[in-house]
Amino acid sequence: MISTAAAAEASAKPVDEWIRDLADPKFRTREEASRNLWSIGESALAPLNQAAAGEDPEQAFRARELIRKIQLFITPDTDAEVIGIVEKYEKALENEKLDLIHQLQQKRAWRQILKLYASETSARARSQIQGQGLIDRIPVTAAREALKKGDIAGAREFLEMAPATPSGLLSLAEFHRTQGSLEKELQRAKTLEGKQGAAWRLALYRASGNLEAAKVAADEAGEPAISAAMSVLLGDPLPWIRRDPQENSLRQGPRVTYADLAAKRWQGSTLRPSDLEPLLKATNSRNRSERTGAVTALLLLGDPVPAEKAITRYVPLEAFSYFETLERVPESLATFGLDPAKPDYEGWVRERMDKLTASLGADEEDRMEEYDQELDSCMGE
């Protein structure tokens, strides 16, 4: 925030006069003009933009510097360390920027982080920052802090600075719902055109609980996953089941088979053994991803026996955890060759430690790969 004294001093003289003083022959006058325009802040941006495009080089340079500071929410009262980090960021290499963002995060410089991200032109740097999940969390965190202080306008400002992603827009829509302004904002959103308008209506309809309208808006906004989710809530899971395989955790081959079979069963048809044959075959695939996808599909389709055989054979540690979670302790123990009726834990561990000791001459990586799952199980990891 700009100090009251600085703002009062700046307001004692018209902004246009301070703008003219940026080109004054006297250095002290130019410095005073810069300082006071900086204190005025956003209301000085319009004349500063005109000065930045002017012919006087000194005036234009100072105007551009002030615009940069004001747009980055850097005021005369901003922490000097935050200013220093921001200045480093503007000169940093792509691989250095994420660390500087983390430094700003430690200083809780929320406005600066959001503004730097919004103005970032490097796709790689944006991807690295977004990949950390920071940009999705920061507007909500900052808004909560503002609300705790009773600063409702500040909370809204933070949420409006968030990237216009489905999650970011939904947070802003929830703000309008809690503040009682959702219906008014929805009426305004109905006048907006294009995908951006549809995306905003989608968020508002989701916040209001209007599933039918949200589904329509999701289709208009080009958000098939959200549209499919709305269909599920409306009682039709088929669009979700049949959505793009790239958005699903199952691998494409097993996933396509699963989608067809799940849809078939949902529509009332009985699955025949031959329907499951592609998945049963895939459980023995050499491709681990395909095998995992087939196992997952069989479990989801309610045919666990072949799936359990596959995970027991190929990934015993996962099988151990799977059976243990289901409280099928005998099968869990049998996964590692333990007698469920009379498990000899001490002997089991001793046998494997002896094997490990005897293989000291072998390559360490190969040796550890052979025993890591069993030893992890012994240690409870």
Overview of the molecule:
The chain has about 375 residues and is mainly α. Among the domains are: about 5-70, Alpha Horseshoe (Leucine-rich Repeat Variant), CATH 1.25.10; about 165-245; about 250-315; about 345-380. The chain has helices at about 5-10, 15-20, 25-40, 45-50, 55-70, 80-90, 95-105, 110-120, 125-130, 135-150, 150-160, 165-180, 180-190, 195-210, 210-220, 225-235, 240, 250-265, 275-280, 290-300, 305-315, 315-325, 330-335, 345-360, 365-380.
Sum this structure up briefly.
The protein has helices spanning 4-11, 15-21, 27-40, 45-52, 57-71, 80-91, 94-106, 110-119, 123-131, 134-148, 152-161, 166-179, 182-189, 194-208, 211-221, 224-233, 238-241, 252-266, 273-282, 288-300, 304-314, 316-325, 329-334, 345-358, 364-378.
Task: Fill in the keyword field for this structure.
single chain; 0% strand; mainly alpha; 381 residues; elongated
Mean pLDDT: 87
Ends distance = 50 Å
Helical run tally:
25
The total of beta strands comes to 0
Biggest beta sheet attributes: none
**Helix fraction by DSSP (H/I, runs of at least 4):** over 70%
* Helix-and-strand structural type: mainly alpha
- Share of residues in strands: under 5%
Layout: helices, strands, pairs:
Elements: H1 4-11, H2 15-21, H3 27-40, H4 45-52, H5 57-71, H6 80-91, H7 94-106, H8 110-119, H9 123-131, H10 134-148, H11 152-161, H12 166-179, H13 182-189, H14 194-208, H15 211-221, H16 224-233, H17 238-241, H18 252-266, H19 273-282, H20 288-300, H21 304-314, H22 316-325, H23 329-334, H24 345-358, H25 364-378
Helix pairs in contact: 1-3, 2-3, 4-5, 6-7, 7-9, 8-10, 10-11, 12-14, 13-14, 14-15, 15-16, 18-19, 18-20, 19-20, 20-21, 21-22
